[in-house]
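Researcher: Going back to the complex we discussed earlier. I've cleaned up the inputs and rechecked each line, so this should be the final set. Can you rerun the prediction on the complete assembly and write out the structure?
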Amino acid sequence: QERTVSGTVTDPSGLPLPGVNIVVKGTSNGTQSDFDGNYSISVNTGDVLVFSYVGLKPEEITVGTSNVINATLTEDTAALDEVVITALGIKREKKSLGYATQEVDGEEVSKVKSSNFVNSLSGKVAGLDIKSSGTLGGSTNVVIRGSNSISGNNQALFVIDGVPISNQNTNTSDQTLGRGGYDYGNASSDINPDDIATINVLKGAAATALYGSRGMHGAVIITTKTGKTKKGIGITISSSLMIGTADSETLPNYQDKYGAGYGAYYGTTEDQYFNDFEDITGDGVPDLTVPFTEDASYGAAFDPSLMVYQWNSIFPQLEGYREATPWVAGANDPNYVWGTSGTYVNSVGLDGSDESSSFRLGYTNMMQEGNLPNSEIKRNSITFNGSHQFTDKLTASTSFTYTKTSGKGRYGTGYDSNNVMQQFRQWWQTNVDLEAQKNAYFATRENITWNTSSGTDLSPIYSDNPYWTFYENYETDSRNRYFGNVMLDYKINDWISAMARFSYDTYTEFQEERTNVGSANVSQYSRFNNQVAEYNYDFFLNFNKDLSDKLNLDGNFGLNLRRQTWESMRAVTNGGLGIPGLYSLSNSSSPIEAPIEYDATKMVDGAFVRASLGYDNFAFIEATYRRDRSSALPKDNNSFGYYSVSGSFIFSEFIDTDWITFGKLRANYAEVGDDTGPYRVYNTYNISAPFDGSGIASNPASLNNLDLKPQRQNSYEFGLEMSFLNKRAGFDFAYYNTTTEDQIVNVPYSGATGYSSRWLNAGTIENKGLELQLYGTPIKTEDFQWNLNVNWSKNENEVIELLDGIENLQLASLQGGVSINATPGEAYGTIRGTNFIYQDGERVVGTDGYYETTDTSNEVIGNVNPDWKAGINNSFSYKNVTLSFLIDIQKGGDIFSLDTWYGYATGLYDFTAGTNDLGNPVRNPVTSGADSGGVILSGVQADGTPNTVRASATSYANPWGYARTPNAAHVYDASFVKLRELSLTYSLTPKVLEKLPFTNASLSLIGRNLWIIHKNLPYSDPEAGLSSGNIQGYQSGAYPAIREIGASLKLQF
Amino acid sequence: CMSDEQYDDLNRDPKNPTEVTADVLFTSATKSLFDQMSSTNVNDNVFKLFSQYFTQTTYIDESNYDLNGRTITDSHWLEMYSNVLYDLKDSSEKVMADAALSADEKAGRLAQIEVLSVYTWQQLVDTFGNIPYTEALDIAQFPLPKYDDAETEIYPNLITRIDAILGNFDSGEGFDSVADRIYGADMDAWKKFANSLKLRLGIRLSDVNPTLAQATVESAVSGGVFTSNADNALLDYLSATPNTNPLWVDLVESGRQDFVAANTIVDIMNDLDDPRRPLYFRENLGLGTFVGGEYGDSNSYTTNSQLGDLLHEATFAGVLMDYAEVSFYLAEAAERTYNVGGTATEFYTNGITASIEYWGGTPTDVTSYLTRTDVAYPTATGTWREKIGTQFWLAMYNRGFEGWTVWRKYDYPVLNTAVESGNPVPTRYTYPVDEQNLNGTNWDAASTAIGGDSQTTKLFWDTM
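Model: Rerun complete. Updated structure for the full complex:
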């Protein structure tokens, strides 16, 4: 006979559990616990009540005589019933997944803050390759399991609460090719680390197949914090401050023995170190002057007794005008420029909830002052999450984020005079005192350069005064970004629910770049307005049904419509600025050329189905299928399907030993694909500025293709997860193999065809690799605990084929004569250039003592791919103090340094002014005697005998720099071992907290990039690069690593 | 949901045209050709260094014949094929397909296009040797175009092509003066240009195929070649970028000091007391003082003669062909007793006169120069090759490619060895690195056919 029983459901610590499903086993009679964990239900004696809650072990209790049945649900450690967010926001029990995912807690990316939270993922996820370009607010390259696309996007997809966000940057192609410009960062930096609850990295195609055409490069799924966990209103305040300084290991060491010049080429006789034909003092007699135009330090040896007219003697504005000064090294070398950066992040979060609603409101302000003068990035973000349960069946939720980022004085990049590192690393006179340059700028606010056209023509020839660059030729930018979603969930019955979601991500960018009148570059003002939007409309039907006692079916059917738009306009003045310091298009000296407009829309619609069958909680099989139609492909080929199958088997269910807690084997196979960007199908002409009224139009260099079809990727993966001794230790191992074929590539062609390239389906890349995560708690006592986490991954990458007859595809042709390439049979990203000539493994030295160099610059001299990467995270807790640190390791990978290519020739580095094996200055002339300068390069002469010829190093055409070495001499191993993060946290104990208004409080001392334990690249950070994107392995005017230390405080009320 | 057609429409770029007229393509190709030939940017054109008119000051890789560091040969190849020849081909297809054009209008336009095409093809052959020709400019059919033999295939065909359109100028109507920036729709001038180009094609063969050379030269002359500087094929550049002379961009706008006059040309001109010196070079060392930078060495911008003021003007005209060049070809033809209606002395004198006058020299300059015994044709020392070669080379200043070609053809004047590298003057450009990667099999065959893809392989007409 039916009666009502009631009770409370709690967790093991006694806290009430709301939302627990309680059903009478074998019936549809069920209810849920309320906010206080209370429930009541009609039952008959002898019924079995099943209490279930995601992530906890289900509990079955038989109804007896009592009318009160309390239940305590415990964590399901044995089965690891962890719930993770997978593709499209679908929640899954981790144990049922047949593919690799790796979770990172939000705390881990917000504790030791980086201005872009993605940088904080470095070393924390196996298979994730993070490379930050190293400039203030610069972009971060995020590649999961290697590059799959020859010339397309390889960036992982970012998804925040179901809102897909592209991580591509808007940097110009010149910027990514090292020809100058600013790195404006990429979209991931708009995500506020303080709002992140968890991050789940979906690594393989099977994991992302439901994203259809955009899941090919893996996905980073971010779930933001909600107000669900707490009753009433809670307040969290956190505040952090970090101070950064340049790591001197990543800066040049300047020599202080020789000053300006390329050698003894000056004076009326063109064989002296100084010029002697300019009258500086105005007395009609020529004076001894520095060769002002020469941006090198291969000149006269310093001699304090020698008085020379230097740059500060030729500007009438300066105090030292017409005064000679001693010939000595500058008192402050360029490293003087590096100041202290400050990054301040303050955030406040309010959250709260009642029986049917919850919300969270967060505000964060980030303010970052760069290490270089006049540079800063500011970011303000507001985020709101809310949900309300209208009825038992209908729940509505929304999230909304607004972020405004503004930048000023981002660092110039690449080979350009607006990148001060170009002069500091490549073209510099060591006699120049940088502090004096600074004072000269501030005294005059003029471009008092050390590098004038002559002693009387004071215009800069190549390099500007660096402080002029900072304060006059700076950029400003802003980005307003809005993203979020609105979602309705409707529970149709106990096993079917429906979800409708609209999500959006829109941003507007405005970038202004300036070059003032009086700079080495032609004065200029340019502006770029960019408006990007993406809208997604999703409709899902979700079902979850126990088909029998042991068989469970779980799945979804869904529709997705995506619409993306891009609108931009770039305009630039022509022929210089009329009025100095006025930055407007109307101030253009010559009429401006038409701005460059871009206007595109792309639509993709897709339908998908996913079904997962689980048997008795130990065997799972899942299949997905999705079909997409893309507007970017020709209409006959615009539809394409993807599928995946995956399975997992929890073998620990069958092993009856105490020490194995959990064991799972998983395997999957997936075929996914990708479309392409707009406007690669129909041909158009390029219109150029008219010539005096005559129209000009030309065929573009790249030919489009009416027959493009989707590119395909096949992948399979095996994995083994185990944990031991009640999860005290465990590991996750994965092997994957991914082949991407029929790639949509802009294939280069012989120029003799009339085109330099053509869009085609061509090329196959294979990526295969191993990933290993290890975790454990080696020591655990009542007061002390040591946790260890290790990630290791190795990706092998090979270009299998390109197109018949195409033997190599240049991804980029770069300054210095090197290129980054894709070649069949080689890993993607080989560096080519001129090489040494080898004989039986020895470098061949010519009769002049210099290395012989190949005639062609098409020799493979390096490869940008690392051999493996690893992260080791240790955390030691003693009572309420926790010390943790992360060591980040990369083994292998090559990098070409344009900085040493030029800088070793111009003689600014210390070793170019050292001594040789005889103890003599290397720059001394080569003689046959014991006083000889020069060096004996190791190698052999053409006849195979060891080289004994001494190479002269008296001028820039020395044995080390661009004049006399092959490119290969400047390819370095980019390996590193870094102490990436360190934190020491003190949390207030509950006893102390009782007397305070806080519910939680902690104080941390934090550090980032504290110590480069090992590296092989001299004078620079092996991680520094130009920009995110496919052009890696190249440094030009690289910025140093910034070592940051600080403190953070977190208070919860 | 939208239809496939509506989806497809999203893929049509609203900001760029799918069709343009033959006129704008012709103008674009014209400008690209002049720009490429006029430039002295070390990334595009190093012929003014190869000819040893200019040398570099501090960054001296290119004057030492490094073609790798900046992939110059790739740039030249691509520019000529893609932005000149392909646009010309497209333009001619549009002319032929245009039903609104009369037969005369088609004939005139096609003839103009053909003259610039043949000019460009010859330039490419004379730079590289064998090149893709019959299979070039057709990516659909020949994605890997084979190379054709310059001597047996391309040169004879270029002569035939010129012959085929010579008749088109008489009644033909060319592009109007808006599109024709060279002669402003003057078809008589175009005809002279076509014949002068034919003359150049013919005379280039004089050492290897005397029969074809003579026939070609003689028929060109009887058809009517340039007879004064008024006939020169020029492009008048404008004062504002991007339509200035490319020289101005590198010499003036950049604010750099990369080039000075080379000692090679300055020394020869000093010996001859050449009246063109103050026009070719600045008198920055004092009136009448001219010093050239040692070729291929590091040189001071201040203590050497800088390039002339004319070269620093944004509107300085670009030149494809001029009367001086034609005159020197005729001088050679006369030496070879071809029937060209004059003597070597007359043509030689015309060439020098045309050059001095074009650069702004006075009649007195001309007279006094020509009366010098080391200049006057009958009394100057050396073979006709030396005499014509030297004066021809002096007249081609600022036309680096022609100057370099004069040296290759006549072996005079004697050029210097580049100081820093010690390398000899190249006799051709190496093929683009891209060809090794993108057209490897054909590149390999061509390299073998010409005797190796080296800077010092001689072209087929360069036998002396």
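Model: Worth noting: The first helix of chain A runs from residue 106 to 110.
Researcher: Good, that matches what I expected from the previous run.
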